[in-house]
Design a protein that fits this description.
With about 525 residues, the chain is mainly α. The protein has 23 helices and 2 strands. Strands 1-2 form a two-stranded antiparallel ribbon. Helix 13 (about 285-300) packs parallel to helix 19 (about 415-445). It is globular. It starts with a helix and ends with a helix. The structure holds beta-D-glucopyranose. Beta-D-glucopyranose binds near residues 171, 175, 298 and 304.
Length: about 525
Amino acid sequence: MAGGPMAAGGGVGANAPKSKLSAILMVSFAAFAGILYGYDTGTISGVTAMQDWLALFGHQVPVSTDHPYGLAISSSRQSLVTSILSAGTFCGSLTGAPVADWVGRQRGVFVAIVIFCFGVAMQTGCHTFALFVVGRVIAGFGVGLVSTLIPMYLSECSPKWIRGAVVTGYQWAITIGILLANVINNATQHRQDHSAWRIPTAVQLIWAFILAVGMLFLPESPRFWIKAGREDKAAKSLARLTNSDVSDPEVQLELEDIKAALKEEQELGETGYLDCFKRTPNKILFRTLTGIGLQAWQQLTGVNFIFYYGTSFFQSAGINNPFLASVATGIVNVFMTIPGMYGVEHYGRRNLLIWGAAWMCFCEFLVGIVGVTISVDNTAGHKALIALICLYIAGFASTWGPIAWVVIGEIFPLAIRAKAMSLSVASNWLWNFALSFATPYLVNPGPGNANLGVKVFFLWGSTCFCCTVFAFFCIPETKGLSLEQVDLLYLNSSVLGSSKYREELLAQDVHIADVAKHTDDRASEEKV
Ligand code: BGC
């Protein structure tokens, strides 16, 4: 069976939740990296709508509701500058797995920060569109590295009983990053010089600096040290992460667990990316495709339409203060992630993903209907439109936003975990890229464009319907199970039967040592 004791604990100090608050807070700091991700996502929407930026990189057009400054940027430039970040992040996320194994998880984050800062500096100081675009690719590469390294670091270093919450903390940081970007864009938008967009761009260096200083005080993942053959360093890391002494029996036990898991992994032989696509009794192929599919459908909910193009969309819909409307969606995104953190452990992953997608589908169709019905100067209609979009974002933030990250952290067996996770994260960025690239062509008027405008919400409504179907048929209920039990669930149960089988596992309190026996007993029960 893939996995092992480490997989069951899945992290540090998997036993009792003792009073290890300071150690947990220390690990949780790594979730701060989500700010880099979120801020980068959120900032471009406002920057590309700023007068000075448009004057520098756009062209002149007649003044209209869509173009209040008499300046515009072509669909091709808008889609390129927005989506190019995700091209960099796609490559960065795939590079994350080897970097994590070569230089380490924590030290890999420093590599990411250096690359990121280089890209940000280039965007801040540039005078040409080409340099701005290249700067975004480079910064994106750094963000992509971080988006694979950080969830891996968090799940390897946090205790099992709080791992889900720590990982949703990462999503929370993403949402805070998006909001910060909206707020800072809003504050600088009226500046008449380059500082209007240079300030929000350069501010990213501050987040990178805070992350770098904080990461200096965090230990490297003990799992990395064991893999690198440095048991002494692994023991020191573990002692820090559990707030105890190297000789503490708990530290020694955990070390043995990690070593045993590694041995088991090595006995299975060196795994490559192709192993993620093998048909096995514990459904490796299905699980990899589920992770890749889940992250793709998360993007296909259409959420980044709001975070990337929200400001221009609100502007063209005739809404008075499009920057404020963007801030409103950012606030809803941050605050509605909190019930998601609670809900994931109370209502389950499967239920929330199904109902969340159904809710988003409902809201998006309503946005489409209201949008095509009202006129551009209908203020009440505009308020209804913003309210519906906020309700839709609330649905995303409390379900698909955090849960997509939680699920990819727990459905893979240890042997292929890093690779399958990086493939899933890369799928997120690939779809992020494809959708952000295609959106201006779909939405904007003008030759060669589909001119869908607000009708694009019918498209997102339909994709959200598909998300409901996907969650129903592909996401098993894994709430409260150890990673080892998740493996057993895939081995012995179907997705549709997962809720019942999960209860059976929890009721019988099946542990790692019982796994083979439990599977045999079930097989003989089925024969009878
Ligand atoms: C998604 C991002 C999105 C963000 C919004 C994340 O989970 O992967 O693409 O911008 O949520 O909060």
